[in-house]
């Protein structure tokens, strides 16, 4: 179930307890949408073709098969912390782009059977001297079940 919640956050505070962690930036499209292209082929710019595209308002858990590719499009106005179980999903987004992957967003390949969540939490911008921090963060949770 997708949780999009705003929580008060202290300036620079980032409490993240998920197994694999990165820092990204997304604006996510519609619901889980099967993509027409194969999971193993790459796009013209080297972007993988997703089997499933998740959206910000994705409310239901998604089941994928080992080998399939999941995409979550990005909103370049944010930086994000990204968490997931690395024994279940492999991030295809380069490490240097994980916090701000660009409009194409994040790509993950399902590599092992099991349950995980892709958790995205916005990172507030730095606080200017003498100013208070932005009070809210956005937290998006995408439950994923990977089957053989």
Would you spell out the secondary-structure blueprint of this structure?
Elements: E1 5-8, E2 20-22, E3 33-34, E4 52-53, E5 62-65, E6 69-72, E7 79-84, E8 89-91, E9 106-110, E10 114-123, E11 136-147
Parallel strand pairs: 4-6, 5-11
Antiparallel strand pairs: 1-11, 2-7, 3-4, 6-9, 7-10, 8-9, 10-11
What does this structure look like?
With 148 residues, the chain is an all-beta fold. Helix content is 0%, strand content 37%. The protein has no helices and 11 strands. The strands form 2 sheets. Strands 1, 2, 5, 7, 10 and 11 form a 6-stranded mixed sheet that branches. It has a 5-stranded mixed sheet with strand order 3-4-6-9-8, with no helix packed on it. Mean pLDDT is 75; it is low at 1-44.
Number of helices: 0
What portion of residues belong to β-strands?
35-45%
Number of strands: 11
The topology string of helices and strands comes to EEEEEEEEEEE
What share of the residues lie within helices? under 10%
Q: Please tell me how large the radius of gyration is.
A: 15 Å
Q: Overall 3D geometry?
A: elongated
The largest pleated sheet is described as: 6 strands, mixed
Overall mean pLDDT stands at 75
Distance between the termini: 22 Å
Say what oligomer this is: single chain
- Coarse structural class: mainly beta
Residue windows where pLDDT falls under 50 for at least 5 positions: 1-44
